[in-house]
Specification:
Helix content: over 70%
Radius of gyration: 17 Å
Largest sheet: none
Number of helices: 6
Shape: elongated
Structural class: mainly alpha
Order of helices and strands: HHHHHH
Distance between the termini: 33 Å
């Protein structure tokens, strides 16, 4: 049986690939603003817009019903990580604009925030895959898993066509072919 937590773990495969791309872009000292902007759009629309929406709007509230507090414990840590990640993305995006406007020093801001985001997400995903999702698997009934999966499909269907899960995965593969 496919479960909601497996769906989220499948997303993680591609989000981790994106973090690897980000680290490779920094290592190779990329100055390609189109690629930087694509990475930011993939994060905002796929990683945050679709994936984190499934977690924050559906998974975490159900976990709350099962006694997992959004103020303390593992769910609270995940929510904090999501906010921290958004701050790194915002700073990287601002750096990209400054770099495009001719501030060559902004490249270091882009790199620093891309590395920080990638490292944060790598640790975050490890905690979700190995701790939080296993807790959810123990707490949820089969019917609850299937109901979540149905709701996840609606979130995915409502994603912008340009950054639907399948389109995002294709864009990640294209970037991987360049940087990895």
């Amino acid at each position: 049986m496919n479960t909601a937590t497996q769906n989220l773990e499948n997303d993680h495969v591609y989000i981790l690939r994106l973090t690897d791309i980000m680290l490779a872009m920094v290592e190779k000292q990329s100055v390609n603003t189109e690629h930087f902007e694509l990475v930011i759009n993939l994060i905002r629309n796929f990683a945050d817009g679709t994936h984190h929406a499934k977690e924050e709007d559906l998974l975490f509230p159900l976990m709350g019903e099962k006694g997992f507090s959004p103020e303390n414990g593992p769910v609270a840590v995940m929510l904090h990580d999501h906010e921290e990640g958004r701050n790194y993305v915002k700073s990287a995006s601002e750096g990209i604009q400054k770099f495009k406007d001719g501030d060559s020093g902004a490249l270091q801001t882009i790199y620093a925030n891309m590395v920080a985001y990638a490292q944060l997400l790598q640790g975050h995903i490890d905690k979700e895959n190995n701790i939080l999702f296993r807790m959810a698997d123990q707490a949820f009934t089969d019917d609850e898993q299937q109901n979540l999966l149905t709701q996840f499909a609606k979130v995915e269907k409502n994603a912008k066509a340009e950054f639907s899960p399948s389109s995002s995965i294709r864009k990640i593969a294209e970037l991987a072919a360049i940087y990895l």
